[in-house]
């Protein structure tokens, strides 16, 4: 198909990650697309692309954002099913790894999706637990963004226990996040809609500061970086057919 | 409302857990209710109840069942949205705890849903990670089944690392499983449809055998136990309005 991409859904877990981008693109709040699910959408047009940013909404009991793989999977599934975008973009913050060349502010275009906290020592289930899924390569996009490429590994904890760290290090993942694997799993049921994930490093997993301290210190900076990186990715995508996006 | 319950969706992760029950109730395979999602349904009538058993389907890459919280949350959400049952029943196997009085074959009606592998040390997010949700009490149902009541704590690993074990022990959870918290989270968006969870112990978490060995040894036995316990629960539910089910 040589038609240019016309619609992009951008999945982001946290409101704080998405707010500067929503403002920058001038997106407007939309009615819920999947009530009673908690997801929040903002939409608008940018350079001929219909953009919908889907955030995970807030947990009723605590008021915090619905982070983690289960809300991410549900949100991506419902967005793909109902909004039927040409392209799904997951953008967000992540932990990086000194040992893999990562630093605060590093930008990655994800080459592979994995899990590091699903240990199931039964043949077949062990591989299912990791659920390694290759991303569709997008080398020209990575080059346009000045981004590295590397694997993202997801887990439902912000901290890292020795078992998770061992799995992460063995996989040479460059990014540790809490959503991408759920999004990739959900997106696997919509093979006609490719998934691109872009991650910005807020904290160094194999550094000397606890993740939660560094994460909170750097969240605003990373959100500002996403505000530049995501529009740059959309600039690259605008006017191109899917095949050229993945050229 | 004094109308008796007319429809029950039974969510079970694994085909092997569900097969004896499907056979016992004479349920028939149904067309997919939520394609392209992978969930598999069998349905039929039992004592005036319209029963639909939803299993998580198989992973395309490995052929194993889609276990874990993300598929469980998506399956429960789509089942509640589309099949609109009066009652959601989650039935499955779990790990039990010697320290809490559990033994192989113990049956529990779940009193609380929790997570033990979502460590997020930021105020608000810490509670969100555990996501403790009280079940609607069903003491007469527990008595009719000869079941104990207790908390189930879910995680995406079959084994137990020291951090998970500490969280489980501190919470005095009686059951460790891999799906219930995802189902309870999804069900929270459908407050008009109560959730009952029934768990049968296949392995002892604080015992001396690795979970995966004990789990495989006892899976068939537990499935047989579910084949007796779930129909006994349906016998109790049949003809009763919701208020009496939770009497």
What does this structure look like?
Two copies of one chain form a homodimer. With 247 residues, chain A is α/β, with parallel strands linked by helices. Chain A has eight helices and ten strands. The first copy, chain A, has a single domain, classed as Nucleoside phosphorylase domain (Rossmann fold), CATH 3.40.50.1580. The first copy, chain A, has helices spanning 15-25, 69-83, 125-130, 139-145, 162-171, 180-187, 211-237, 242-245, and strands spanning 7-12, 28-29, 40-46, 49-55, 87-96, 107-115, 133-134, 148-154, 175-177, 195-204. Chain A has a five-stranded mixed β-barrel with strand order 5-9-8-6-10, surrounded by four helices. In chain A, a hairpin with a 2-residue loop joins strand 3 (40-46) and strand 4 (49-55). Chain A is globular and about 45 Å long. Chains A and B meet through helix 2, helix 3, helix 6 and helix 7 of A and helix 2, helix 3, helix 6 and helix 7 of B.
